[in-house]
Write a structure and sequence with these properties.
The protein is of the alpha/beta class and about 260 residues long. The chain has helices at about 5, 35-40, 55-60, 110-115, 140-150, 180-195, 205-215, 245-255, 260-264; strands at about 10, 20-25, 30, 45, 70-75, 85-95, 105-110, 125-130, 155-160, 200-205, 225-230. The strands form three sheets. The protein has a seven-stranded mixed β-sheet, sandwiched between helices. The protein has a two-stranded antiparallel sheet with strand order 1-4. A two-stranded antiparallel sheet has the order 2-3.
């Protein structure tokens, strides 16, 4: 073990298909997603006193700095009769001063006047974001990403799973890895409201599972998503961390502890 390792430096590894898709850059040169990731990924410095990945993950929450992202919320009435009810989508907007104590910090509802001005013909890239189990638009990992992209001229929104991020429970169904109905309805609405915006999507953990299932559906609602990313997407929940005896039990307790906050 060298000195850098003792100080917390960790070498990053990149894995991909043996023949990744070739991408053309603005200057005409060719590259691929793996090389792009290698060129932009910052050095990985971990806490040298934490001895496994679970503690490192917990530490990122403890030491996390704030990323001030402001949202306006739109409530959608579900179109699918099998999964009736409502769901909440939070759109990233410029900073404002008003507050709503019934919603997460820096989140208020769109007014009727504001909704009347939402439609746009601009060609800005639009990111659809899905959180992980029991999460929501208020999560730090979401806000850090959205803050960076919004600062670079992106538009973005977060699909809150039913009952999450202080959204009301109006149906018998919450969400699961196959819960594609709300995302598909939102994508359809985005294509109509912002016809010139290329759509991208990112889903964390269980949200990644939902995105993969959305992309696997070849109907007209799912097709407009250009590219999607699924960080920490468990390809098999049974084989993931939740399926392991010791660590799985700990994470299950932590996740289940969030459920009363959803139901109350």
């Amino acid at each position: 073990m060298d000195l850098w390792r003792l100080l917390g430096y960790s070498k990053a590894s990149f894995y991909s298909h043996k023949s990744p898709i070739v991408l053309q850059q603005k200057d005409g040169t060719k590259t691929n997603l793996v090389d792009i990731c290698k060129s932009i990924a910052p050095p990985c410095w971990l806490n040298p006193f934490l001895f496994n990945g679970h503690l490192q993950t917990t530490w990122t929450v403890v030491k996390s700095t704030d990323a001030p992202v402001y949202y306006k919320r739109k409530i959608f009435d579900a179109e699918c009769s099998a999964y009736r009810g409502t769901f909440a989508v939070d759109f990233v907007v410029p900073p404002y001063t008003e507050t709503d104590p019934t919603l997460p910090p820096r989140t208020t509802h769109f007014s009727d006047e504001e909704m009347g001005k939402v439609r746009s013909d601009d060609g800005k890239p639009m990111l659809v974001t899905l959180h992980g189990l029991t999460g929501g638009s208020h999560e730090a990992y979401l806000r850090h990403l959205l803050h960076a992209l919004y600062s670079e001229g992106w538009e973005a929104c977060v699909v809150n799973a039913r009952g999450c991020a202080r959204s009301k429970i109006t149906s018998e169904v919450f969400f699961n890895a196959r819960a594609t109905w709300d995302v598909r309805q939102l994508v359809k609405w985005l294509r109509k409201t912002f016809p010139n915006r290329p759509l991208f999507a990112i889903g964390y953990s269980l949200g990644g599972c939902i995105l993969v299932n959305v992309r696997s559906i070849t109907d007209s609602q799912a097709a407009p998503i250009h590219h999607l990313v699924g960080p920490s997407d468990p390809s098999s929940v049974c084989r993931s961390i939740l399926g392991k005896k010791a660590t799985g039990a700990c994470w299950t307790l932590l996740l289940c502890a969030q459920i009363p906050g959803i139901l109350m």
